[in-house]
Amino acid sequence: MMHTIGEVAELLGISAHTLRYYEKEHIIMPLRDTSGDRRYTESHIKWLQFVIKLKETQMPIATIKKYASLFLEGEHTTLDRLNLLEEHRCSIQKQIQILNGVDEMLAHKIATYRTFIGK
């Protein structure tokens, strides 16, 4: 099944502008119908879901572009793609540690305030 840019934007909770930006940056290359309108396949949607998760975890657009470019180059780039994703995962794990530490500090501070005000 093929989807329009508006359908994909609504489905993924992003703007059509963002989809056009991803296309301009060669992160996604939608198909075009005979009228020149963008058409997205289920494969495009799955890829965009992955891109959105990478963005949500603070991967820079430049790195996402590099990953997309490597993918398009073919299977000989598999090791480079693996390394890129492993580096990002390491970064996410560091973020998790930081957030867990902040969460513990906030829990302690909140408990202190609650004790102080008798709540």
UniProtKB/TrEMBL annotation:
The answer on whether this UniProt entry bears the keyword DNA-binding reads yes
Question: Which UniProt keyword terms apply here?
Answer: DNA-binding
Which Gene3D superfamilies does the entry link to?
Answer: 1.10.1660.10
| Record-linked PROSITE patterns | HTH_MERR_1, HTH_MERR_2
SMART domains (UniProt xref)? HTH_MERR
**What GO annotations for molecular function exist for this entry?**
DNA binding; DNA-binding transcription factor activity
Q: What protein name does the entry list? A: MerR family transcriptional regulator
